[in-house]
Amino acid sequence: MTTPRGLRNNNPLNIEKSKGGNPWQGEIVPSKDSRFAQFRTVTYGYRAAFKLLNNYQRNYGLDTIRKMITRWAPPSDKGNDTEAYIRAVSTRSGVPADCHITTTNRDVMVPIVAAMSFVENQVEAKMFDVQAGWDLFIQNR
Predict the structure, then answer these.
(1) CA distance 97 to 78
(2) Where are the beta strands (DSSP E) in the chain?
(3) Which of 4, 64, 115, 130 is deepest in the core (most CB within 10 A)?
């Protein structure tokens, strides 16, 4: 089985390269991937995901799985089945799609990001890695 692109890049949520020239902590610049950021370790990839979702809430008021996923994987991007993505993350995380969430709540966000990683890669996330990414995020918000 071929390793999914997100895992090869240590970028389990497939975060696109930043266009502003301000790299993520742990990002490899320049990325050898044509579209997505690459990270030194998967922990940095998860940290970036937590940071980005936290920015969604702080900057845009996105406070539910539905709102976050609609921005993360919008239906306007070719090939996205946004509703299926929302259902999968909600089901796998145990968090209702329209329930208010706080992106600084570890007990909510770790399962959500693990579920998003599964949707992106079709491979179960290693919870140790997701939690390590959370720890980096909390230390360096």
Answers:
(1) 22
(2) 27-28, 38-39
(3) 130
Q: Does residue 17 sit in helix, strand or coil?
A: coil
CA distance 24 to 45: 9
pTM over 0.90: yes
How is the chain split among helix, strand and coil, in percent rounded to 5?
50, 5, 45
Q: How many C-beta atoms lie closer than 10 Å to residue 28's C-beta?
A: 17
**Token digits of residue 80:** 């996205």
Sign of the dihedral defined by the CA atoms of residues 86, 116, 19, 4, in that order? negative
Please provide the size of the chain in residues. Answer: 141
In the chain, % of residues over pLDDT 90: 85
Q: Are 44 and 136 in contact (CB under 8 A)?
A: yes
SS3 call for 25: coil
Q: Residue 38 — φ and ψ, nearest 5°?
A: -120, 145
Cβ atoms 14, 120 nearer than 8 A: yes
The separation between the first and the last C-alpha atoms of the chain, rounded to the nearest angstrom, is 36
Report pLDDT digits (tens) over 40-84: 999 999 999 999 999 999 999 999 999 999 999 999 888 889 999
